[in-house]
Write a structure and sequence with these properties.
This protein has helices spanning 6-34, 42-63, 65-77, 79-108, 113-124, 126-145, 156-172, 181-186, 194-211, 214-238. It has 239 residues and is mainly α. It is globular, with a radius of gyration of 18 Å. The N and C termini lie far apart (54 Å).
Amino acid sequence: MKNIDFKEMGKAFLIIILYLIIVPEIISIVFYTFFKSLRDNSTAIMIINTLIYVIDLIIILFIYRKSVKDEFKKYIDNFKSFFKTAFKCWGKGFLLMIICNLILIQIVGSIASNEQTNREIMQQLPLFSVLTMVFFGPIVEEFAFRKGFKKVFKKPQTFLIFTALLFGMMHIINSIDYTSTASLLASWKQLLYIIPYSILGYYFAKAYLDTDCIFTSITCHMLHNGLSILLIFLAQLLI
């Protein structure tokens, strides 16, 4: 317990709550108050989600304004070595994630529900997918899931494991059907996908620790999401 800064942990979880719950609720309420007829409109959904990411990003950058400028300068000054670290960490995480996913598909019988949802969004809203998954998403998530917890744990390995599991859980939590006991039991296998997402999160966090620069882990995240979207788009063209 002595190795945990609970004040910093509270601050980190508050940022996650702002990112995942408070900002989305406020933006949705305000938007649909003025545009009730657009509730099921795909363009409106795209606008709302983009606004959510923009507002989240503004809030997070304001909170970390003291260190963002210094870390960005550090990243630019050491771009070659930091990018090499990012690419190396992403490569290890990506390879292990693929192996894990191939095993889990045989057990679960399908890909992760989160992945399936992302693919459907890519088909319906390709521009929105690129904008949020390659740009806004990685920046906001790295600040929320990584930077926010760096000061919480004194032991690096604890930081790596905790943030990795948190990252994995947040990507799976919406995949579980909580409407009834039967549906919950039927969807429990989706929880296994916490493993590959956590593996990826572990290496994103490692890139951050190895360089002490959040923009290195953001690079990892962007590389992963960008390549994933590219591969999915190519697969759709070939089918």
